[in-house]
DNA sequence: TCTGGGGTCCTAGGACCC
DNA sequence: TCTGGGGTCCTAGGACCC
């Protein structure tokens, strides 16, 4: 009996996404090497093909490749997440208009579920889709098709190298040929540690892994690895998730542009992070009852190292900014030690539940809940209209404060700010 | 001088309970 | 001195992803 397959997966992946976003408004940079930096202009997080060809590694600290950048005149951009988020949204909208099931997997990737139908040309369909994204949004994408998500990822790698930008992995022979040409570490879900372990057992290529003994894989890589093994063999273990569940945790943290030593500066940073996280909670319509605050010195600093964190449980779930700020500051007081040069601080919010699903506590029964929901709603509305940080809690963020971010190469908010809209001129 | 940020899942081990 | 067996919950840490 053969397993009848009714659906296949397609993975749509934006090519060099952040770099493509920057180029969209600077078309003269097409064909030129460009890179995009992380927050604080710290690391390289995206590269155009030309920059990759010049040997700029992913995740490399900027200062290590300064010479290479100067030598080849590589264009450098600070990250502009508002722009990338907006363009991502536009790409996903085009996909949704194509009447197939869509799972938005990350800012630049989406899985689709396509029906298997002999009278229907899947490759042609995704080629049309690809062209539509290019025409409507201007972002180039590659699309890989296969019977499992893991194989669709592999198919996408091939699509990326092909001018057509679309590729389907179909049939044992073709699958094996493709997997043989891939390092095992190129497989989705196989990271550096797993590669080390697998190499010890003579597993080097993706095909080696596909043909590995399940007992061995399960022992070395546990259930996650066993799942990957099955997916490589065409047995789907990871399904399409159309409705993303509400987040289980929300982290807001930043490295400081310069070391921070005083409690006041740390407090100011933590207030800003909590405010942002609480806003996210409200945006998702959820509440949380646990706030963890953490601080750390820089791992690359020569000075004494210190890092610590403190969890504060709230009496009941909330999304109120002042309640959460109060908790975070209490936590910060417990872990702050003077005499250290802090490089990073952040907060982690957990215990997230849907608004209205809250467990009543013994002391609030029968008493009206004192809430500042209307205040928070007003706050969010004003900040949405006038820009993030238009109204804040006791913060004075000015550019010469130590924690302000370094962003020296930032492009304009072309699509999300009225003030920075690009001007189009029509010649007649 | 300069080394990102935000997530998920899994596992092991400790505390605690009956 | 001898100290079971089964279970839950929580946390920290590892590994991975984009």
Q: Would you give an account of this structure?
A:
- The chain is built from 13 helices and 12 strands.
- It has 428 residues and is of the alpha+beta class.
- The strands form 3 sheets. Strands 5-6-1-7-8 form a 5-stranded mixed β-sheet. The chain has a 4-stranded antiparallel β-sheet with strand order 9-12-10-11.
- Strand 2 and strand 3 form a beta hairpin.
- Helix 4 (81-96) packs across helix 5 (122-136).
Instruction: Count the DSSP helices.
Output: 13
Count of distinct strands: 12
Q: Please give the order of strands in the largest beta sheet.
A: 5-6-1-7-8
* Uncertain parts: 396-403
Strand coverage percent: 15-25%
Helix and strand element order: EHEEHHEHEEHEHEHHHHEHEEHEH
Helix percent band: 25-40%
Q: Would you tell me the overall average pLDDT?
A: 89
**Distance from first to last alpha carbon:** 66 Å
The structure class reads: alpha+beta
Q: Which of globular, elongated, flat, extended, rod-shaped describes the shape?
A: globular
| Rg value | 25 Å
Largest sheet composition: 5 strands, mixed
């Amino acid at each position: 009996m053969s397993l009848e397959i009714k659906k296949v997966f397609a993975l749509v992946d934006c090519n060099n996404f952040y770099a493509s976003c920057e180029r969209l408004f600077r078309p003269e940079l097409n064909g030129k090497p460009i890179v995009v930096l992380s927050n604080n202009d710290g690391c390289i997080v995206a590269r155009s093909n030309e920059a990759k060809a010049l040997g700029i590694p992913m995740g490399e600290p900027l200062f290590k490749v300064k010479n290479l950048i100067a030598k080849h005149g590589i264009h450098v951009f600070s990250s502009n997440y508002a722009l990338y988020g907006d363009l991502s949204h536009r790409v996903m909208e085009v996909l949704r208009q194509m009447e197939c099931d869509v799972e938005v997997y990350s800012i630049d990737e989406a899985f689709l579920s396509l029906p298997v139908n002999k009278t229907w040309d899947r490759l042609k369909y995704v080629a049309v889709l690809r062209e539509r994204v290019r025409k409507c949004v201007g972002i180039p994408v590659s699309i890989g098709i296969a019977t499992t998500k893991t194989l669709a990822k592999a198919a996408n790698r091939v699509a990326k190298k092909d001018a057509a930008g679309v590729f389907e992995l179909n049939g044992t022979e073709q699958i094996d040929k493709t997997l043989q040409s891939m390092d095992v570490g190129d497989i989705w879900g196989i990271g550096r540690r797993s590669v080390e372990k697998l190499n010890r057992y003579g597993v080097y290529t993706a095909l080696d892994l596909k043909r590995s003994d399940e007992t061995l894989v399960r022992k070395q890589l546990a259930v996650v690895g066993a799942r990957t093994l099955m997916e490589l063999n065409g047995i789907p273990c990871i399904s399409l998730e159309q409705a993303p569940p509400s987040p289980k945790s929300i982290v807001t943290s930043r490295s400081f542009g310069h070391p921070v030593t005083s409690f006041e500066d740390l407090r100011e940073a933590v207030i800003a992070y909590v405010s942002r996280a609480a806003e996210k909670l409200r945006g998702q319509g959820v509440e949380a009852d646990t706030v963890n605050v953490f601080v750390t010195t820089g791992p690359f600093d020569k000075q004494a190292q210190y890092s610590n964190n403190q969890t504060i449980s709230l009496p009941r779930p909330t999304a109120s900014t002042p309640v959460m700020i109060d908790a975070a500051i209490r936590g910060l007081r417990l872990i702050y030690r003077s005499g250290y040069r802090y490089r990073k601080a952040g907060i982690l919010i957990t215990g997230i539940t849907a608004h209205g699903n809250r467990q009543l506590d013994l002391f609030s029964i029968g008493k009206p809940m004192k809430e500042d929901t209307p205040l928070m709603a007003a706050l969010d509305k004003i900040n949405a209209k006038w820009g993030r940080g238009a109204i804040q809690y006791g913060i004075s963020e000015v550019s010469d404060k130590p924690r302000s971010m370094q962003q020296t190469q930032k492009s304009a908010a072309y699509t999300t700010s009225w003030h920075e809209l690009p001007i189009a001129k029509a010649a007649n």
